[in-house]
Design brief:
Elements lengths: L8 E5 L3 H11 L4 E5 L23 H12 L4 E4 L2 E9 L2 E8 L13 H5 L3 E3 L8 E3 L1 E2 L11 E2 L11 H5 L12 E7 L1 E4 L3 E3 L16 E3 H8 L20 E8 L14 H15 L4 E6 L9 H8 L4 E5 L2 E6 L6 E7 L4 E7 L1 E6 L1 E3 L10 E2 L5 E2 L4 E3 L9 H21 L1
Parallel strand pairs: 1-2, 1-11, 2-3, 11-24, 13-20, 14-15, 14-20, 15-16
Antiparallel strand pairs: 4-5, 5-10, 6-7, 8-9, 12-21, 17-18, 18-19, 22-23
Helix pairs in contact: 1-2, 1-8, 5-6
Bound molecules: flavin-adenine dinucleotide.
Flavin-adenine dinucleotide binds next to helix 1, strand 4, helix 5, helix 6 and helix 8.
Length: 417
């Protein structure tokens, strides 16, 4: 309790690893926390990773602890499929409008899948970057939290007689759900809106969307995941062939004034991790990493050395000039300049992985009422604190620490009253 007797109230925008950390840490000191998440599930991008370093453990090992802390803490309210519509007021006293989209599935859902079995319509899986499809009514992913289906009405055919409603034994599907706007009062706000993968199709010479078997690093994360579109098999999308030779293109869109001007911090480490994924499935596979500078900051240097010890990992310093389809096969031809030897390389590989960077959500979509730098990262103000990748590209461990710091700043606003 504080001077005026009302509890300290904090809004957290974004329910990824950063938002969950900030929200839970604050709530465990007694603050009342509201988490607003635009996806139908919590966990953010980490939920899409196969494994994450430094421990190379599955994302659920970190997320599940947080889900459990949320379940047992009455101070936390969260809204999925929700976004902030407006923010007014001043530090210590904000009024926030939150818009909640209809999920069409209520809390009676037991995730039994009977609805999806009879659903006649399909949609591209956004969780799997379009590598496969889901039914129009679907579970975002196997272990999603909340464990509840969601209906994408835009994928429903007009003449559908809604067999899903009939198939649901629990009365969980409600086609009359409407968009809702709720208003909350909070003392402070933590902004943890994170990042999205840079759109690889914007990089003309790298062939994405034009040349077969050119994928992005996040697509590879989904492929390597046992709950992913290929059930964990790293294969070519064109013909299902297990990969033997793979090229990684670093800084695909990062450190480039025409795309993302900053270093995304994670992509060198991600490609090294992906090398481990590939080597695990095929120890004889050969990997070629085209880089400008290999960045494995601080203690991550050890990770670089661990990966290089596996053998068959070729680091080539040079910019990739072109990526083209082989004339006689589904192979991909990479043309690059090897800066260290001064030679031009033309190399045939099974698959190319573009190490696309982390674009802050704020570059294309700005939460009304917040301030942003030109590169899309959030600018803090008194009572408004960014956390994790909304502030700067960082790894999950960094997000944990940064978000704990943001939680403390947010708590202080309520205590100050
Ligand atoms: C290929 C790749 C591999 C990686 N591998 C690793 C790894 O092995 N180890 C590691 O430590 N890190 C890894 N990372 C980095 C890791 O993904 C990030 O550190 C982490 O996702 C950051 O968490 P976050 O909560 O800040 O952002 P996010 O995970 O992006 O979460 C942000 C959340 O906010 C929500 N949101 C966004 N905008 C709004 C809005 N306006 N309203 C409501 N909600 C909103 C989003 O839907 C999302 O749920 C990798 C990154 C890449 C690109």
């Amino acid at each position: 309790m504080h001077h005026n007797g009302s509890p300290n109230r904090i809004l957290v925008i974004g329910g990824g690893f950063s938002g969950l950390t900030a929200g839970i840490e604050a709530a465990e000191t007694g603050a009342e926390v509201i988490i607003v998440e635009k996806n139908p599930y919590l966990g953010g991008r980490v939920a899409q990773l196969n494994k994450y370093f430094p421990k190379i453990c599955p994302p659920l090992c970190g997320l599940e602890i947080n889900y459990r802390r949320i379940k047992v803490n009455p101070n936390i309210t969260f809204y999925t499929m929700a976004q902030v519509d407006s923010i007014s007021g001043v530090s210590g006293d904000y009024n926030v409008k939150i818009k909640i989209k209809p999920r069409y599935v209520n809390e009676n859902c037991t995730a039994c899948n009977a609805c999806a079995e009879v659903c006649p319509a399909e949609r591209d899986s956004d969780f799997n970057f379009g590598l496969n499809k889901t039914k129009a009514i679907y579970l975002p992913f196997e272990q999603s939290f909340p464990l509840r289906y969601v209906l994408d009405r835009t994928a429903c055919p007009k003449d559908c007689s809604a067999p899903c409603v009939a198939a649901c034994k629990y009365n969980a599907i409600d086609l009359n759900m409407q968009e809702q706007i709720i208003e909350v009062k909070v003392n402070s706000i933590v902004v943890a809106t994170g990042w999205k993968p840079y759109d690889a199709a914007k990089i003309d010479n790298l062939g994405f969307g034009k040349v077969k078997n050119v994928i992005t690093n996040m697509m590879l994360e989904r492929m390597a995941s046992t709950n992913g579109p290929t059930e964990g098999q790293i294969i070519r999308t064109s013909d299902g062939k297990p990969v033997e030779k793979v090229a990684f293109v670093q800084c695909a869109g990062s450190r480039d004034e025409n795309h993302l001007p900053f270093c995304s911090y994670i992509c060198c480490l991600a490609s090294l991790k992906h090398t481990l994924y590939i080597k695990e499935q095929n120890p004889d596979a050969e990997v070629f990493i085209y880089y400008i500078d290999i960045r494995t900051p601080g203690r991550y240097e050890k990770f670089l050395n661990q990966v290089l010890e596996k053998g068959g990992v070729n680091l080539i310093k040079g910019k990739v000039a072109a990526i083209e389809q082989d004339a006689d096969s589904d192979d991909v031809i990479v043309t690059a300049e090897d800066i260290l030897s001064g030679t031009k390389i033309k190399q045939k590989v099974d698959m190319v992985v573009l190490a696309t960077g982390m674009q802050p959500e704020g570059l294309e979509f700005k939460v009304p009422g917040l301030k942003y730098a030109v590169d899309g990262f959030v600018i803090d103000a008194d009572g408004i604190y960014s956390a994790g990748c909304a502030k700067n590209p960082m790894d999950v461990a960094g997000c944990g620490k940064d978000s704990t710091g943001a939680a403390l700043k947010a708590i202080q606003i309520g205590v100050r009253r």
